[in-house]
Amino acid sequence: MGDQKRHKILMVSDFFYPNFGGVENHIYYLSQCLLKLGHKVVVLTHAYGNRSGVRYMTGGLKVYYIPWKPFLMQNTLPTFYGTLPIMRTILIREKISLVHGHQAFSTLCHEALMHARTMGYKVVFTDHSLYGFADVGSIHMNKVLQFTLADVSQAICVSHTSKENTVLRSGLPPEKVFVIPNAVDTAMFTPAPEKLSHNEIVIIVISRLVYRKGADLLVEVIPEICRLFSNVRFIVGGDGPKRVRLEEMREKNSLQDRVEMLGAVPHARVRSVLISGHIFLNSSLTEAFCIAILEAASCGLLTVSTRVGGVPEVLPDDMIVLAEPDPSDMVRAITKAISILPKIDPQVMHLRMKKLYNWHDVAKRTEIVYDRALGCSNQNLVDRLSRYLPCGGWAGKLFCLVMIIDFLLWRLLQLWQPPEEIEEVPDFSLPNSECPEFKEDGSLSLR
Distance between CA 362 and CA 180 in Å, rounded? Predict the structure, then answer.
């Protein structure tokens, strides 16, 4: 790839390895694919336990674990300007050309995008979640998102439902928002070598056991399914505050031999759990996309899911049975899934998933968004402030004040430590034998 087309990207989020989740997987696999395409990718996140400083991952992916500790749900405490000095140093040291922030709930992402725009960098934001409009938490988050996206270069959503939600919440022009779905590493999630017997039907649940993931629905659905089908067994993987309710349900209904609670499941063990079952059950109350459904389908499981958010866009109709987030309708959907289970061939489903989703396609489409972002015109501070004023009668003025202070602090840093005094990191390329490779189906081979 010619140097004029080589992007130097800083991925920023509070959510990254060693934490596990959809956002973490997305950043990791997207970064690996972009590296393979010839771009430079650096990840910025907060420290996890004793993991602090600079670390290297597969393919030479460089990760800055800055010494900020999480205070709530792996999020760092908002500082507004506290991250400006270290952000500026990393951007200059790594000769970054574009900053890509992930997840609306990430404090570090919002601060990084704000500082990057102050310093004149182009920024891209990817929204991985759906939020409402009525509760206090959503109202607060929507106003924060409106502030962050007022001056963003381009935005990405993982589904069309997510795009509609983001545009309504932030007021961002729809033409600035692109839909690029998640993907799955089909080389990692393969079906069991032999088709499982249908004498006993095993239903798999792997999810954080929290309200948003519909753990309360499981408390009502599982006993009813066990009552209707004597040959059905559940395996529940995941942990969270709602785990106690599930364990109480199991004790109350004497289902210890039919409901297995695994607790938190490391990502490396997810496939081994999935291939032990026939049906994957997702009970989420809100979901922008749901990578777990892709992983289950790639392993050949028929999916039963609540019809929420972007879930209906994820799989073809013959690979998923949808239900309203209501216990009786979910029981109906599971009953239907059990009846059509003999028609499901896990190997055929896996081959279809190879064609539907791969990270190489996601990276190529994201590359186009980067090109468009870098093509956006540069604006001075006055022009940028005009974008914040429409954010609200008092909020717009407050946002302008925040950006003016950020700009003044940046100028003071420029005087205190000129950019030429910050040592730049030399670029290097890994030998091909050490780079992640794409197979013919588009999946990653991480060697």
Answer: 7
* Residues contacting residue 445 through CB under 8 Å, at least 6 positions apart: 187, 436, 437, 438, 439
Q: Superfamily for 3-183+359-438? A: Glycogen Phosphorylase B; (3.40.50.2000)
In this prediction, residue 245 carries a pLDDT of 96
C-alpha–C-alpha distance, residues 185 and 280, integer Å:
18
Q: pLDDT per residue over 56-104, tens digit each?
A: 998 889 999 999 888 877 888 888 899 999 999 999 999 999 999 999 8
Structure tokens given for 414: 């420029």
Residue 154 β-bridge partners: 124
**What is the 3 state secondary structure string of 255-293?**
CCCCEEEEECCCHHHHHHHHCCCCEEEECCCCCCCCHHH
3-state secondary structure of 149: helix
Tell me the CB-side half-sphere exposure of residue 340, using CA atoms within 13 A: 16
d(CA 63, CA 409): 26
Domain 3-183+359-438 and domain 201-356, same fold? Reply is yes
- At 219, the amino acid letter reads V
Domain 201-356 matching CATH 3.30.530.20: the answer reads no
**163: how many CB neighbours lie within 10 A of its CB?**
21
Phi, psi of 199 (to 5 degrees): -65, -35
The answer, yes or no, to whether residue 110 has pLDDT greater than 60, is yes
Q: Give dist(CA 210, CA 194) in Å, integer.
A: 34
Task: Write out pLDDT tens, residues 395-435.
Answer: 889 999 999 999 999 999 999 999 999 999 987 765 554 44
Q: What percent of the chain has pLDDT over 70?
A: 95
